[in-house]
Specification:
Structural class: alpha/beta
CATH class of the largest domain: Alpha Beta
Number of helices: 11
Largest sheet: 8 strands, parallel, barrel
CATH topology of the largest domain: TIM Barrel
CATH architecture of the largest domain: Alpha-Beta Barrel
Strand content: 15-25%
Radius of gyration: 23 Å
Number of domains: 2
Helix content: 25-40%
Shape: elongated
Order of helices and strands: EHEHEHHEHEHEHEHEHEHEEEEEHE
Distance between the termini: 33 Å
Number of strands: 15
Length: 358
């Protein structure tokens, strides 16, 4: 499966085809390759949904996007389709069919063996070792299965960091992909003024940081829960890297060393450190002299470098997680921007990262 970076659109809730066309063209122009929608919103006008949905999916496909859609019994009523007829949904323009109830475990397994190359998307909130083990024993076709978290339109109902990590870990143990949702800070879906994220802490967080956090927590694919996100947000999601975490900093020194460091992939070398995040050792591989960098009391979010008196640790880049006293053998070289400070809380596993100038 290709990595999905998706926007959202919803038919029948006040967004017309011309506005959808403009949004799809805009999203595709910056690299968005997927569209999430729902065929079960109770507030959607049935006639508009029936009329506009095929047009919307055709527009998305024309611009190289896959379409993922929620379905349930309401979908069957509107379109006159058998809820278990995956081919019919594929013909309607749905590439990823997100099942929301009404399927037994045996139905799920059968659906994954469809002959139209449709991916069956299951609710990540239901994923347990017991259930996934059962589906595997029943013969689920794993290459045509993905998991997707819910979005949460009510404040204080979104997932915690810990719950998200736990669910994603279970899903990954069985070799499946998992996706989640980000809230737009520029446009909220009609009828939902507080955004549609998976994680509660992302409800008012900028998209770039929320995407980075989501990847650190194990999300493989990401969508906006809200529709009509601004092009700057679409671009931020499309450019977010799930393999190398990007941390934006204000450099406090300039010159050959900083030019060499910025945008260079670094790797965390030790898990679970409470006070600092340590990079791989640079030693004598970097240009210039780190001994010339100033030493001072360290604050959460400072970027520092070890000086030559620390011998084999000389050149190690460290990100400060908690306030620390001054060490004359450690120099201050930069400061993580306030928006990206939450990343320090999530960074718990060995992962590559890079520092970029803000």
């Amino acid at each position: 499966m290709k990595k999905l970076r998706g926007t959202s659109l919803f038919c029948g809730i006040g967004v017309g085809i011309d506005e959808m066309r403009e949004h799809i063209e805009k999203a595709a122009s910056v690299g968005i390759n997927a569209l999430f929608t729902s065929l079960q919103l109770p507030e959607a006008d049935k006639d508009e949904l029936f009329r506009d949905f095929p047009i919307m999916t055709e527009l998305a496909h024309r611009h190289g996007m896959i379409v993922e859609a929620d379905i349930n019994h309401r979908t069957s009523d509107i379109f006159g389709l058998d809820l278990h007829d995956i081919e019919a949904f594929k013909n309607l323009g749905v590439d990823y069919v997100r099942i929301d109830g009404a399927y037994t475990d045996e139905d799920i397994v059968k659906a994954t063996h469809n002959e139209v190359d449709a991916t069956i998307v299951l609710n990540a909130a239901l994923a347990t070792d017991e259930w996934l083990s059962k589906l595997c024993k029943l013969g689920i076709k794993s290459e045509q299965v993905s998991f997707c978290h819910n979005y949460y339109p009510m404040r204080y109902t979104g997932l915690t960091v810990e719950d998200t990590q736990r669910m994603n870990d279970v899903i990954h143990r069985y070799g499946f992909r998992v996706s989640g949702f980000l809230a737009s800070q520029t446009h909220k879906r009609i009828g939902c003024s507080i955004g549609l994220p998976t994680l509660e802490r992302h409800r008012e967080m900028n998209v770039f940081t929320a995407a980075q956090e989501s990847f650190l927590l194990g999300m493989d694919d990401l969508f906006f829960g809200d529709d009509l996100a601004d092009i700057s947000e679409l671009k931020a999601l499309a450019e977010a890297d799930d393999e190398i975490v990007t941390i934006r900093i204000h450099p406090l020194i300039e010159g050959e060393f900083m030019d060499w460091l910025l945008d260079r992939p670094l790797e965390q070398t030790q898990n679970g450190l409470e006070m600092i995040l340590r990079s791989n050792y640079m030693r004598s591989s970097y240009p210039g002299n780190a001994d010339n960098t100033p030493s001072c009391t360290r604050r959460r979010g400072d970027v520092t470098v070890c000086k030559s008196p620390l011998l084999r640790y000389s050149g190690e880049i460290q990100l400060v997680r908690k306030d620390l006293p001054m060490d004359p053998d450690i120099g201050l070289i930069g400061r993580i921007i306030d928006e990206d400070l939450p990343l320090l809380d999530i960074f718990k596993t060995r992962k590559k990262f890079k520092l970029v100038r803000c």
